[in-house]
Structure to design on (166 residues):
């Protein structure tokens, strides 16, 4: 089913966007149609996705979750869903794959896992590894933005919402 103007979509690591237009622009020797995406929490950005690039559309773009789906993800995912991988190289590869997949359930698991790891490191008087910190911020941003856009709350209110939902 093709997307339409005003649909709320999740687009790769850019997060939640609104489809603001479908336009046709010249590209090389032909005219190409594009979805024009505006990230909900980054008004200065615009993303153009060619309608004829099924790989981009099928692998990077999906409808934003519904409030019911968000509630289900929260209820089915817990802080016990630890996906820590001791091997740093394997952990980086797996977390990168999850972030790029846009799978909110798995991204929330990264947030829970790295939040717990951060607390452990603090207790030991240490900091998280820089790569883990980056994954944590990216995962948190994606969850906060999608949940906030769908639920009509601020990104900073998302984790209070999650805590109250548990």
């Amino acid at each position: 089913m093709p997307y339409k103007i005003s649909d709320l979509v999740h687009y790769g690591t850019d997060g939640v966007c609104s489809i603001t237009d479908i336009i046709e622009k010249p590209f090389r020797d032909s005219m190409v149609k594009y979805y024009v995406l505006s990230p909900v929490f980054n008004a200065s950005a615009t993303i153009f996705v060619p309608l004829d690039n099924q790989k981009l559309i099928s692998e990077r773009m999906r409808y934003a979750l519904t409030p019911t789906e968000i509630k289900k993800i929260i209820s089915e995912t817990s802080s016990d869903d630890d996906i820590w991988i001791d091997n740093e190289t394997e952990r980086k590869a797996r977390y990168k794959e999850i972030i790029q997949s846009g799978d909110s359930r798995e991204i929330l698991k990264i947030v829970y896992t790295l939040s717990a790891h951060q607390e452990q490191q603090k207790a030991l008087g240490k900091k998280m590894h820089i790569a883990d910190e980056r994954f944590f911020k990216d995962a948190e941003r994606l969850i906060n933005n999608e949940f906030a856009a769908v639920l009509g709350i601020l990104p900073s209110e998302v984790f209070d919402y999650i805590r109250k939902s548990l």
Remarks:
- The chain has a mean pLDDT of 95.
- Helices lie at 54-60, 67-76, 88-101, 104-123, 130-151, 158-165.
- Residues 67-165 form a domain with the Methane Monooxygenase Hydroxylase; Chain G, domain 1 fold (CATH 1.20.58).
- The first helix runs from residue 54 to 60.
